[in-house]
Specification:
Strand 7 and strand 8 form a beta hairpin. This protein has a single domain, classed as 2-Layer Sandwich (Alpha-Beta Plaits). Strands 4-5-2-1-7-8 form a 6-stranded mixed sheet. It has 3 helices and 9 strands; from the N terminus they run αββααβββββββ. By secondary structure, it is α+β, with helices and mostly antiparallel strands.
Length: 166
C-alpha cells in the first residue's frame, strides 16, 4: 500500500509540473546596437504554443502558426503594434519590419531602425498582456559590451520604461 501511495504521488507531481510548464507566459526581446551596420536590431522570441494560443483568442480561430503563412503574418503585425520605442525626447523611433520565422518551438519577429541619436531609449511592449496578466516580456538592450534588462507585465502597460544608453 505504501508503494502505491508513493507511485501515485510521483505520477500526480509529474502531471502537476507538466500542467504548470505551459503556464509560464514569457517572451524574450533583444535590442542590439550594431555599430557595424549602423542599426538597432530587434528580435522578439515567443513560444510557438503561447503565440498560437494567444492569436486564436485575439483573432478568434486563427490558423496554425507553425504552417499557415497568413496566420504568421497576422502575429507578426500584432507584435509590431504592441512594441514601441522612443528617444529620450519622446520622439517615436520608427522600426522597419524585417521579417519573421518559425524555428523549432519558437516564433521570431525581426525589426530594425537606424541607431538613434539619443542618450536613452524608452520602451513599451504589451504583446499578449490583454490575454494573460502574468505574461512577461523580457527585454535585453545590448550596446558597447553591456546589457541592461527590463521585465514587463500587464501592470506596466501604461508607462514607458527607460534604458540609458551610455
Amino acid at each position: 500500500m505504501r508503494l502505491l501511495t508513493i507511485i501515485s504521488a510521483l505520477v500526480f507531481s509529474s502531471l502537476l509540473s507538466t500542467s504548470f510548464a505551459h503556464q509560464q507566459k514569457e517572451a524574450y526581446i533583444s535590442l542590439l546596437f550594431n555599430d557595424r551596420t549602423g542599426n538597432m536590431e530587434v528580435s522578439h522570441r515567443f513560444l510557438l504554443h503561447d503565440a498560437e494560443h494567444g492569436l486564436s483568442i485575439v483573432l478568434e480561430g486563427a490558423g496554425d502558426l507553425s504552417a499557415d503563412k497568413a496566420t504568421q503574418e497576422q502575429f507578426f503585425e500584432y507584435v509590431q503594434r504592441h512594441f514601441k520605442v522612443t528617444s529620450s525626447d519622446k520622439q517615436a523611433i520608427k522600426l522597419t519590419p524585417v521579417g519573421y520565422e518559425v524555428e523549432g518551438k519558437y516564433f521570431w519577429v525581426y525589426q530594425e531602425a537606424a541607431i538613434p541619436d539619443t542618450g536613452e531609449i524608452r520602451l513599451k511592449h504589451s504583446a499578449l498582456h490583454e490575454l494573460w496578466p502574468t505574461q512577461t516580456n523580457h527585454i535585453n538592450v545590448e550596446k558597447d559590451g553591456w546589457v541592461k534588462s527590463i521585465r514587463l507585465q500587464k501592470i506596466d502597460n501604461d508607462r514607458w520604461h527607460s534604458i540609458p544608453l551610455d
